Input
Amino acid sequence: MTLFAVYVVNRAGGLIYQYDNNLPRTDVEKTFSYPLELVLKPQDNKIGVVFGQRDGIKVGHVVQAVNGVPVNGTLLEDGQEVLDIVSNEANYPIAIKFGRPKLRTNEKIMLASMFHSLFVIGSQLSPEPQSSGIEVLETDAFKLHCFQTLTGIKFMVLADPKAPAVDAFLKKVHEIYADFALKNPFYSIDMPIRCELFDTNIQACLEQAEKTGITNV
Amino acid sequence: MSRPNVKGLDPKKVSGELFTLTYGAIVAQLLKDYESDEEVNKQLDRMGYNIGVRLIEDFLARSGISRCNDFRETSDAIAKIGFKMFLGITPSVSNWSPAGDEFSLQIESNPLVDFVELPDSHSNLSYCNILCGVIRGALEMVHMEVTSWIVQDVLKGDSITELRVRFIRRLEDALPVGED
Output
């Protein structure tokens, strides 16, 4: 899936829209017998794998479900501590699902604000005057493209490093914003975008981008 | 009435006359609600402002224009691209002030005032005041504070509609990064 996510940040740096498109899921569910080979420890309000690696379960993955019951933080839905269940031999064999921790909405908001600040720093670091902010942030797994309009709204797209024509896609997102968000009289500028038509059109645009490989703007 | 054949109309385009009618209905209702011409002028300006702040993104998305560094570029963008895109007319830019911070937009055929006559009881009404608000709102979103007002009005006996726009200042504190 070439385009992973779309983020829209308002003039003050607050996240006003976020959509995840087919993020690669890395969930693995396996049945274990006592004793558990992986070392589990509470990490950041979740139970994470600290050491041990087998069958696709890696360090950094967190427990997502035990015996089919989803895990909420460090507790199961009925309130039992996951670590207690896992250390009790009587509960084995046990099926545990591991996966990469998914970003929660609050974390996304924080990261968007941080990016907004880095965007400004990017422009200030420039040796040449009149530089734009960060346009592309590249890692080995993805590329983040950012487009700032003249009014200060930023559109960001997380894409595959090899994805072509992401700039054209960003312009299309700008058009969709100008149409379905701004022309909606009940939408206030700089507020979170809760317009169904906007969602539908962004999703349609993402699907079209995946199908054709490039976008037909 | 003589009207061209309407059968071949694009279903997405609304008739210009409907637009004139709609605007007329708005002004008439505002007059009924507020009764004072001055108050209606203010309301029209405010409505225009709200339209302008939203319209600017559409304008930027469709025209792909980059930031104007000079008030003359701004005036050309408004007249030749903006008005053309949204009202289908091209006003002429003229009457520049010596300091280059004030200009006039002269509109010959204004779609808002087709078929309209202003009665004597409402002689203080600036019928097209919404356009002033739109320009003010749109330019504020690209960090230019301006005022605009109507100088000549077809409904008051002049031959053309003339709008004057004056540059006040650049809104430096709201400027997005990399644009100074």
In short: The radius of gyration of chain A is 21 Å.
